[in-house]
Write a structure and sequence with these properties.
Layout (H helix, E strand, L loop, with lengths): L12 H9 L10 H7 L7 H5 L13 E6 L5 H9 L4 E5 L15 H6 L1 H16 L2 E2 L14 H6 L8 H7 L10 E2 L8 H4 L3 E7 L3 H10 L5 E5 L2 H11 L6 H21 L1 H7 L2 H4 L4 H20 L5 E5 H6 L1 H12 L5 H10 L2 E2 L2 E2 L4 H6 L1 H4 L2 H11 L14
Parallel strand pairs: 1-5, 1-6, 2-5, 6-7
Antiparallel strand pairs: 3-4, 8-9
């Protein structure tokens, strides 16, 4: 991979030329013609294009798919599989970007008062997200229809998502000071990016939002990946929860408790399963996370049975036959599954976004049984008891 200095970052080179003429779509210094030529939002005013907020009125987004599930349940893996296609533009966790239009989505109560509000806000979120790149996105490792081959060969396409290089680029490219940006012309074509199939990975997306998408967006594949609660708990503690401060743990606990409290207020079934508010107030963080796993996944799965655009992926089954499932996922999304795509996905079974794997995917899927404490293994089994999801692991835990 070419280094930043080797491509002239420390001298005038291409970076100095970019800074001199402002050739970055969506930046104040960018000539209006450049925005019109490269941005699918071109019929809006330039001020709309460069704003960190989406326009109030938006056109209909192009094709896209949703990847939903709990964090640490294989959503990254599913996104990486789809990223192997030259046709996809994969966005990782745009909901975790504070400036994302995702945070303007209305609440369930607001939708009841104004049913059209969700449609407009969701359209804004999808259009913005599928036509931008973001700081949480994974590296582009497969050829793309919208990335210049030379840019990919030299490694330039990776620069904006490499923290150290991005910080240096911010000195000459103001757009990178924001969390999301339009595609730089020296990486690829913004207009072709707008024609790609967007893939939005949104962890812990609330069941009522998934239901709205299934009901009102029948053309949108919803890929729901579910991992055994034991595996999800072990991975979550290893990668996320163990590093939280006391204040962060309390905040997370209150968040999950709050979701569960809402569930028991609106549905007697969940009150029976989860108990009353006083019981929920006694749940610790991992207990609250485990019961949220049960509630949200079961709700999404039960709702999804009514809609042909819903597709369930069980993580442990994916781990046993990743290429077979990959083909099914591509078919669900209307994407071409070629030998080159399969080779890229197959190579990806030996590493994750966190680095190379020391075990096979099947071994990783089962490793929680040796690592998770007996206390939390019992919690996972308790959460599964009586669930419609329990038969997925009926041959034994996980």
């Amino acid at each position: 991979m070419a280094s930043a200095s080797g491509l002239g970052l420390s001298s005038l080179g291409i970076w100095g030329e970019i800074a001199r003429v402002g050739l970055w779509p969506g930046v104040v210094t960018c000539p209006e013609a450049a925005v019109v030529d490269h941005c699918p939002l071109a019929h809006f005013s330039t001020s709309m294009v460069i704003s960190s907020n989406p326009p109030v009125q938006t056109p209909t987004p192009g094709s896209y798919a949703l990847v939903v599930g709990n964090g640490r349940s294989g959503t990254n893996w599913l996104l990486s599989m789809l990223a192997a296609s030259p046709q996809t533009h994969c966005r990782n966790e745009p909901h975790d970007i504070a400036s994302s239009p995702f945070h303007r989505l209305p609440s369930a109560s607001e939708i009841r008062q104004d049913p059209d509000l969700m449609a407009d806000r969701w359209r804004q979120f999808v259009l913005w997200t599928t036509t931008h790149m973001g700081e949480r996105d994974h590296r582009i490792t497969a050829p793309k229809t919208y990335v210049h081959p030379l840019s990919q060969k030299l490694g330039v396409a990776y620069f904006p998502v490499r923290p150290k290089i991005r910080r240096a680029l911010m000195l000459v490219l103001p757009a990178l000071r924001q969390a999301e940006w339009l595609m730089p012309w020296w990486i690829g074509s913004q207009s072709r990016l707008g024609q790609a199939t967007g893939v939005l990975k949104i962890n812990d997306l609330r069941a009522w939002i998934v239901r709205w998408v299934l009901e009102t967006q029948p053309q949108v594949p919803v890929l729901h990946i579910v991992r055994h609660p034991g595996g999800q708990l072990q991975s979550g503690m290893s990668r996320f929860f163990s590093g939280l401060t006391a204040a962060q743990r309390e905040s997370e606990t209150q968040l999950y408790r709050g979701i569960l409290k809402t569930a028991i207020q609106v549905d007697p079934h969940w009150r029976e399963v989860l108990g009353d508010e006083s019981h929920l107030d006694r749940l610790d963080l991992m207990e609250a996370v485990a019961w949220f796993w049960r509630y949200n996944n079961e709700e999404i799965y039960t709702l999804g049975q009514q809609y042909p655009n819903y597709h369930l992926v069980v993580y442990e089954q994916l781990a046993l036959a990743p290429l077979d499932y990959a083909r099914q996922v591509y078919d669900a999304c209307g994407l071409a599954y070629t030998p080159a795509v399969e080779a890229h996905i197959n190579a990806g079974t030996r590493q994750s976004v966190w680095g190379k794997l020391s075990q096979s995917s099947a071994e990783v899927a089962q490793s929680w049984k040796k690592k998770l404490s007996l206390e939390y293994q019992a919690l996972a089994q308790q959460v599964l008891e009586g669930s419609v999801m329990a038969p997925w692991w009926s041959d034994g835990p996980g």
